[in-house]
Amino acid sequence: MYRVGIIGYGTVGKRVTDAVLRQPDMELVGISAHSYNYRIDVANQKGIPIYAMNDITELSGNGIQVKGSIKNLLSNIDVVVDCTPKKIGKANKENYYVNYPNLKAIYQGGEKAEIGKSFVAQCNYNESIGQKHVRVVSCNTTGLARTLHTIDTHWPIQRVRATLIRRGTDPADSDRGPINAIVPSLELPSHHGPDVRTVLPNIEVFTTAVVVPTTLMHMHNLSVDLKEVGEDTKGKMPTADDVIEVFKKAPRIRVVKSSSGIISTAEIMEYAKDLGNHRGDMMDICVWEKGLGIHGKELFYAQAVHQESNIVPENIDAIRAAMGFEDGEESIRITNRTLGLKERG
Ligand SMILES: NC(=O)c1ccc[n+]([C@@H]2O[C@H](COP(=O)([O-])OP(=O)(O)OC[C@H]3O[C@@H](n4cnc5c(N)ncnc54)[C@H](OP(=O)(O)O)[C@@H]3O)[C@@H](O)[C@H]2O)c1
Question: Which of 25, 152, 209, 275 would be a feasible disulfide site paired with 185, CB 3.0-4.6 Å?
Fold first, then answer.
């Protein structure tokens, strides 16, 4: 059993915690509490062992059973999953994790790429086997990498242009926006393109981004140039149906139909609830069947990314990879089965 600790119990941390609890080969030793809040209250009610990041007075004063300090937690685990806000993971690495020579650490996409090996399970699992520091890339990067890698393994990609329509904030954040504006990212490319290349270095991808007033999901509009016929495309250019079939067989990608009434991110989130998904999450990347088309050598498609949850299965696979579990496909299978993700094929 891999003994796991979670540092940071917010949007990502609470989901990764629930996912760890469902794994047959993992034991959740505990989570950290940084301050007292309703999320920690619920964890306490569920009987999840809680370790204090700071002084315990505020926590115990509010009825939280504190099992120990962060150092107690780190001394009793094989792997830590750091789910703190950006830059805090780096500080935690330097202040804490490096002091535990046998500890493996998984970080999130808010950290810079230098912190560890960038990871998307179905793209580059093997590169993280036995690594001490692994970084699960951001929700946007994970979404792009999953579909682009799937295409590239069947029909090699010449280059990618993608526009990311990003959610303003997460549903539970009442203090962030925008509330009535569309905010362009003036960085060219947006940081997502270079980040995809930390996972898929051979794919030339250039991204632009805008932030919009929605909390549900991100949307990506992609234009993918495929290589010339005869170069190394195994003989022929795909039809739209060929690409859809390949997406249907790929892990963690779901083809959705507008004819079923799924015409926006709103219906996808409702669909996830109707499927009975835990927390109403949609961990698969959703590609619209009708919006996928080929024009000459260019492939176009639109995909929706549930930012709060799509990186959860990656964290589970990253734990196994860092711990030296060598069969990436088997890890993906176990994770998908235990989290109720769509069966492959
Ligand atoms: N939210 C998303 O949609 C999303 C998607 C993919 C990746 N990510 C990445 O995942 C990471 C976490 O994001 P999140 O949205 O889950 O953040 P979040 O909801 O703000 O949660 C952060 C958690 O870390 C705790 N924390 C804050 N400062 C800390 C410190 N100094 N030491 C220990 N714990 C501390 C917070 O506790 P308190 O509340 O008590 O301060 C909270 O429990 C980031 O790198 C982010 O870029 C986020």
Answer: 209
Q: Is 267 helix (H, G, I), strand (E, B) or coil?
A: helix
Q: Does domain 139-305 have CATH number 3.30.360.10?
A: yes
User: 157-167 and 218-226: which strand pairing?
Assistant: antiparallel
**Residues paired with residue 164 on neighbouring β-strands, in sequence order:** 209, 220
Q: For the segment 112-162, what is each residue's pLDDT rounded down to a tens digit?
A: 999 999 999 999 999 999 999 999 999 999 999 999 999 999 999 999 999
Q: Which residues pair with 6 in a beta bridge?
A: 31, 81
Ligand 1 lining (C-beta closer than 6 Å):
7-13, 32, 34-35, 37, 53, 83-86, 88, 108-111, 138-139, 170, 307-308, 311
Pick from 131, 139, 113: nearest CA to 318: 131
Q: Class for domain 2-137+311-339, per CATH?
A: alpha beta
**Catalytic-role residue among 83, 123, 139, 286:** 139
Active site residue 139: yes
| Ranges in the chain annotated CATH 3.40.50.720 | 2-137+311-339
| Closest atom, ligand 1, to C-alpha of 136 | 7
